[in-house]
Amino acid sequence: MINQNRLHSTLPGTGISWKKAWKRDWELYLLLSVPLLLTILFKYGAYPGLRIAFMNYLPAKGYEGSEWVGFETFRKVFRDRDFLLALRNSLIFNFAEVIVSFPMPIILALILNELKIPRFKKVSQTILYLPHFLSWAIIGSITYTLFRTETGLVNNFMINTGLASERIPFLTENLNWSITYLAVGVWAGMGWGSIIYLAAISSINEELYEAAMIDGAGRWKRMWHITLPGIKPTIITLLIMTLGRLMGSNYERLSAMGNVNVKAVQYQLAIYIYEKGLASGTGFSRATAVGLFQSLVGLLLVLASDKFAKALGEEGMI
Amino acid sequence: MRNRKNILKRFTIADLIMIFIIIMLCLTCVLPFVHLLSKSISDNSYVLAKDVYFLPKGLNFEAYIAIFKDGQLTHSMLYSVLVTLIFTVLGLVTTIMAAWPLSRKRLKGRIAFTFIIMFTMYFGAGLIPTYLLYSRLKLLNTMWVLILPLIFAPYNFLIMKTYFQSNIPASLEESAYLDGASNIQILVRIVLPISKPILATISLFLAVGRWNAYQDSKFFITKKSLHMIQYLLSMMVLSASETEKISISEASLVTTTPEVIQAAAIMFVSIPVLCVYPFAQKYFVKGIMIGAIKG
Questions:
Q1: Any idea which of A124-133, A169-178, A256-265, B43-52 has the lowest mean pLDDT?
Q2: Are A145 and B263 in contact (CB under 8 A)?
Q3: Percent of chain A scored above 70 by pLDDT?
Q4: Whole-angstrom Cα distance, residue B140 to residue B221?
Q5: In chain B, whose CA is at the least distance from the CA of A135?
Q6: Are A172 and B242 in contact (CB < 8 Å)?
Q7: Which residues of A touch B160 (CB under 8 A)?
């Protein structure tokens, strides 16, 4: 308390004039100016470029020479079959991800928490975090090495041991590819995702477990009635955050695992934007319109998720 | 510690099953690399016969020799290390420059400044406007397009700011202030020395993030010598995904099969991460915990 009072005498709060604030903290403002400039130059500097979503932008003519078309580009995009396919694929895969990938770190954390040999627990955690440190280029390369039809390790193993009589096209058939894609995602994110849940579990009151043990509750009962309710807030917060990313699309991941045979399912928003925009050079306006649509929906989803989380009495994330 | 007294008494079937599951999961992380390593140092004939699993057969380092002779990957490795180093140093400095001032409650305007920074995390302009901006700034096809736009990231800023807020009380600052220290002196002499854990964490976030990302190489750079090594790997292996063959150089293809070269290339690119990550991961875990408090 004493500190607080002295503090106010020497370092008053924000309720002072800009002149006084500058005089006292000019060094801080000077420091801040550099990252602020970077933000304005590289992030805000790109926003004006969004106007080409409302133009018929031709790179040769530039901003000034291209004509304004209002919402025409958007109307075209929403009738564009490629866009609808990309949108549909993105949504389906993101929903599948929520169902398949979201619960895995929770289950893993519950298992890790039950391990009774501390050294084993520590070493296995370290190993399970490894995929988080690998680029999608490496993960994609590994996937191909393991799952190629003709030369992949898994197929070789199954044929040589007689587990399968035919080679399975893991990566060249739409459904197989989708499953492999999601499974690799689970593998890549599981270990890392468990960290937050493990931390939440470790903050649960020990006495609850002791009391339950005295009452004769077994392992599963304790898990169900103490651990899971204990980490429920964390689960809800992370679930909502995941839902906030439903419109997302990861170019590196998609391209690292893609190939011509599975275009029908691999074609998602990030691929659409790259191929229509940069790769072809003619669809700048369309690609920008889709990017803007994606950003806006993403922003709305995040805001809605945050509101929802706060309404549920959880801590928001903004 | 609740389990300690029961260790001996209650080692049940369920425990064994869980240990088994965890071991299997760990194997999925380790075995692919064992396989790649074995393949990369095996003799072609065994690889062609699909006979190499987790042990090398007919020891042979020609694939690695080919990589060094060809020079593309080794050049790119050095270049990527350089880019990552510059990126990490500049990134750390700029993150401190924003996180320290905005972590001080007394700073007038801090809520507005914080909002300006954080807004960009939730609403991006997208690929094409970004491309056009870099083009106007003459950044395309330079090393700096891989560095300058990304060194200051809102997420890192948020984590560091949270750390400063909860670890450097105003009272600590105030005593130095009364002794006549300037804001800069307080930051450099007092705050940074006691904030080493967060500095390590953010440095690693920056370094690993830069090292692993490669879509900007694809989008903004056409000169091969300026590409990050991850992008070269993705081109080598993935454009070859099912049908085409990879091309390190024609000469090396004579002596080794593409598959062996691919395995060696993947190992070559993975080795730096595999070496660093056992030491780095504990700082990462710390960072994610701070970020989880509000992030």
A1: B43-52
A2: yes
A3: 94
A4: 6
A5: B212
A6: yes
A7: none
Which tokens sit at A9?
Answer: 């005498």
Q: Which residues of A touch B21 (CB under 8 A)?
A: 111
Q: Cβ separation of A16 and B3 shorter than 8 Å? A: no
Give every CB contact of residue A234 below 8 A, 6+ residues apart in sequence.
A196, A197, A200
Would you say A62 and B143 are in contact if contact means Cβ atoms under 8 Å apart?
A: no
Distance from CA of B145 to the nearest CA of A (A): 11
Q: Read off the pLDDT of residues A6-63 as tens digits, 9 standing for 90 and up.
A: 444 455 566 788 898 898 889 999 999 999 999 999 999 999 999 999 999 888 888 8
Q: Which residues pair with A67 in a beta bridge?
A: A56
Residue with tokens 């100016």: A33
Q: Which two tokens stand for residue A61?
A: 């003519």
Residue whose entry in the numeric block shows the structure tokens 């002499």: B189
Confidence of residue B249 (pLDDT cuts 50, 70, 90): very low
Q: Give the tokens for residue B53.
A: 């699993």
- The predicted complex's ipTM stands at 0.89
Mean pLDDT of A261-273: 94
Q: What is d(CA A317, CA B289) in angstroms, rounded to the nearest whole number?
A: 14
Record: contact A171-B170, CB cut-off 8 A = no
The span from the CA of A205 to the CA of B19, in Å, is 25
Closest partner CB to B273 (pick from A42, A133, A151): A133
User: A247 CA to chain B: closest CA distance, Å?
Assistant: 12
Q: Which of A47, A124, A129 faces B125 most closely, judged by CB atoms?
A: A47
pTM assigned to the model: 0.89
Give the position of tokens 């964390």.
Answer: A234
Q: Which residue of A has its CA nearest to B229?
A: A137
Q: Give how far Cα A300 sits from Cα of A89, A281, A296, A304, A307, Å.
A: 20, 30, 6, 6, 10
Question: Is A94 within 8 Å of A301 (Cβ atoms)?
Answer: no
Picking from A11, A128, A219, the nearest residue to B170 by CB comes out as A11
Q: What is the DSSP secondary-structure string of chain A? A: -HHHHHHHHHS--S-S-HHHHHHHHHHHHHHHHHHHHHHHHHTGGGGGGGGGGGEE--TTTHHHHSEE-TTHHHHHHHH-HHHHHHHHHHHHHHHHHHHHHTHHHHHHHHHHHH---HHHHHHHHHHHTGGGGS-HHHHHHHHHHHH-TTT-HHHHHHHHHTS-SS---TTTSHHHHHHHHHHHHHHHHHHHHHHHHHHHHHTS-HHHHHHHHHTT--HHHHIIIIIHHHHHHHHHHHHHHHHTTTT---HHHHHHH--GGGHHHH--HHHHHIIIIIITSS-HHHHHHHHHHHHHHHHHHHHHHHHHHHHTTS----
Query: A58-101, pLDDT tens digit by residue?
Result: 888 888 888 899 999 999 999 999 999 999 999 999 999 999 99
Q: At B174, which amino acid appears?
A: E
* Per-residue confidence (pLDDT) for residue A17, from 0 to 100: 87
